[in-house]
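Hey team,

Filing this mostly as a record. A colleague (T.K.) asked me to run one chain through the structure pipeline before their review meeting, and I want the input and output archived in the tracker in case anyone asks later how it was produced. No errors, nothing strange. Just documentation.

Input sequence:
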Amino acid sequence: MKYARLGNTDLEVSIVCLGTMTFGEQNSEREAHEQLDYALARGVNFIDTAEMYSVPAKPDTQGRTEEYIGSWLATRHNRHGVIIATKVAGPAERLAYIRGGPRLDRSHINRAIDASLRRLRTDYVDLYQIHWPERSTNFFGQLGYECRNDLGIPLEETLDALAQLVQAGKARYIGVSNETAWGIGEYLRLSRDRGLPRIVTVQNPYNLLNRTFEIGLAEFSHRENLGLLAYSPLAMGALSGKYLGGRQPPSARLTLFPQFDRYASPRCQVAIESYVALAKRCGLDPAQMALAFVNTRPFLASNIIGATTLAQLRANLSSADLTLPVEVLKAIDAIHLQQPNPAP
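Output structure:
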């Protein structure tokens, strides 16, 4: 397993981060613990979760993922041997069951982290992230930009609330997720102007079907030492090729939850067919090739990989040891030029 320093922190994280949003929905507590044990044994030291999980979000499973990680931490492992990242939810009408509707003000952030710490059975998290912005902007696949002035809770108040968590020792470092170039620039400006803690990561989607991070955001990562935590590196499993031809494998995520259609467009299917064909021509597993590509990105801090079975996790983690030949990387870029970012 390869490791890299997380931004300008003192944390050395594995290039693969274990994503856990299936815990409590598709995975039982026992299965969650098995995945955590296996990942740790393979050298993964970085675990990503959120107060909203498991996914799809529901009132009766909200927080369950953190609970499963907490029971694992409490009974099996030294807390200091793992790096835990979690997130506070931003505003969303469908999440009215979380604090009457989550916001990113001081009160909500304080209540959110205290609840997360109780569920995780720890007194601090290593990385605390804003799951998505308070303001109206482009995230979760939204295209186009509607000029509106509804900023909601000012970023300055949000950052000041996060600063208090760091000062209190509840979070070691802070980051953002599903954020835009303007949002990142504003957080960095406020940190400089106000002497507040600096965000160290951005957790955004990045995969062969969506490389939009490279447009604007990658330069922030490079010049500001702001590492990408790449989520959905397999495009919800679509890049494995298992859904091609209209197939619906039993118990597969997109079979169970067809509402997640971000990677289901005809353009996506054409691109997936091309990437899968390339992998097979080169004697590679399509999923491992897709994950290994993400691992090559110079702006990457860690690649968030999730699985619903140990067999999937075993195969996916093997991508950390896969080096893609230059010819494969060139062929990937050629496909990308033909089908640029078919998924937003």
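Quick notes for T.K.: The beta strands are 3-5, 12-14, 16-19, 46-48, 83-88, 125-130, 171-177, 199-205, 227-231, 300-305. The CA atoms of residues 17 and 189 lie 28 Å apart.
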